[in-house]
TrEMBL record, chain A:
Protein name, per record: Cytochrome c-type biogenesis protein
Gene3D superfamilies for this protein: Cytochrome C biogenesis protein (1.10.8.640)
One GO CC annotation: plasma membrane
Function: Possible subunit of a heme lyase.
Transmembrane segments: 118-135
Keyword match Manganese: no
Organism: Sphingomonas aerolata
Signal peptide range: 1-27
Keywords, comma-separated and alphabetical: Cytochrome c-type biogenesis, Heme, Iron, Membrane, Metal-binding, Signal, Transmembrane, Transmembrane helix
Keyword Iron: yes
GO molecular function, one term: metal ion binding
InterPro entries per the UniProt record, alphabetical: C-type_cytochrome_biogenesis (IPR051263), CcmH/CycL/Ccl2/NrfF_N (IPR005616), CcmH/CycL/NrfF/Ccl2_sf (IPR038297)
Residue span(s) of domain CcmH/CycL/Ccl2/NrfF N-terminal: 33-143
From TrEMBL, chain B:
Span of domain Thioredoxin: 35-175
Keywords: Cytochrome c-type biogenesis, Disulfide bond, Redox-active center
Protein localization: Cell envelope
CC terms in the record's Gene Ontology section: cell envelope
Pfam families registered for this protein in UniProt: Redoxin (PF08534)
Highest rank taxon of the organism: Bacteria
Name recorded for this polypeptide: Cytochrome c biogenesis protein CcmG/thiol:disulfide interchange protein DsbE
GO MF, any single term: oxidoreductase activity
InterPro entries: Redoxin (IPR013740), Thioredoxin-like_sf (IPR036249), Thioredoxin_domain (IPR013766), Thioredoxin_ResA/DsbE_sf (IPR050553)
Length: 144, 175
């Protein structure tokens, strides 16, 4: 009886493993990534400027990461695009503008100053001013 | 002044609490929309993906009739789910073209055999170049393009039953 029970348990565990542990069919492109997705440019200066740009571009799939850090297929495609355009002599700013014109400011980690983003730029200055004001009044109190 | 100083920390706390609570109850919209809606399609010319069906160029969207541009792939699971809805849109007389992302001819041929083939043309985008130029951030996505080649609408994710109405309406308005 106990033998049959343990057999049933084992079978149940196997079914559970199969049900919950098998990975879903991988949704990955069937073609390999473009050459420059994971290969550096031959010119070190160009590679450095491409890398610096990639670190300030957001991966659209895994949205907390830059395309330099991300392992997503789309990030690989974007890295290849950045390297090819830099290799062709485009400036990092124009590559960034090209992507912003496709995806909006969301794609860049270096947001331009606009009607929507001005608090980002103004808030630190305002906070510093408030801090200075508080410090000044508390110092004045102490000297009295 | 003293009374203000007494209540200020509580007021600041209440403000922060409100900010955090609103983020909790209304999570941020993480969908990345294309900035190309309202703009002309980028210029592209993609080779044919399957034999017997032409490739896709941006020029073919300037024929005066609105068309759907479906971004899909054989390796994309939700693309299977939207296939019957695309077939339905086709039977309603809406022409559909497609861009296959990083795919191979046998894989796409198999996909079309299994899930139906609603496409007039299929272009092969082997390095996602045109996808990036379109501001598309994944598969599947569908663009409604008017007869002059201007993108009028983007549907992100698989087309569902309840998207059909809005697509038909967008196509009608684009005529």
């Amino acid at each position: 009886m106990s033998g049959r029970l343990s057999l049933a348990l084992a079978a149940g565990a196997t079914v559970a493993t199969l049900l919950f542990c098998t990975a879903p069919a991988a949704a990955q492109p069937v073609t390999p990534p473009a050459h420059y997705a994971n290969v550096q440019l031959a010119d070190p200066a160009k590679e450095a400027s491409a890398k610096a740009l990639m670190e300030t571009l957001r991966c659209l799939v895994c949205q907390g990461q830059s395309i330099a850090d991300s392992d997503a297929d789309m990030a690989a495609d974007m890295r290849a695009l950045v390297r090819e355009r830099i290799a062709r002599g485009e400036t990092p700013a124009s590559v960034r503008d090209w992507l912003v014109s496709r995806y909006g400011d969301y794609v860049t980690y270096d947001p331009p100053l606009s009607g929507l983003t001005w608090p980002l730029w103004l808030a630190p200055i305002a906070l510093l001013a408030i801090g200075a004001w508080i410090a000044r009044s508390s110092f004045r109190r102490r000297t009295r | 002044m003293k009374r203000f100083a007494l209540w200020a920390p509580l007021a600041i706390f209440a403000l922060l609490f409100a900010v955090v609570a609103s983020g909790l109850f209304r999570p941020a919209d993480k969908v990345v929309r294309s900035a190309m809606v309202g703009k002309p399609l980028p210029d592209f010319a993609l080779p044919a993906m399957v034999p017997g069906k032409p490739g896709l160029t941006s020029a073919s969207f300037k024929g005066g009739q609105p068309r759907l541009l479906n971004v899909f792939a054989s390796w994309c699971v939700p693309c299977i789910a939207e296939a019957p809805h695309l077939m339905r849109l086709k039977t309603m007389g809406i022409p559909i073209d497609a861009i296959a992302i990083r795919d191979t001819t046998p894989a796409i041929a198999g996909f079309l055999r299994r899930n139906g083939d609603p496409y007039a043309r299929i272009g092969s985008d082997t390095a996602s170049r045109v996808q990036l130029a379109l501001g598309s951030s994944g598969v599947p996505e569908t663009f409604v393009v008017d007869g002059r080649g201007i993108v009028v609408k983007q549907i992100i994710g698989d087309i569902r039953e309840d998207n059909i109405g809005e697509i038909v309406q967008a196509v009608r308005e684009a005529r």
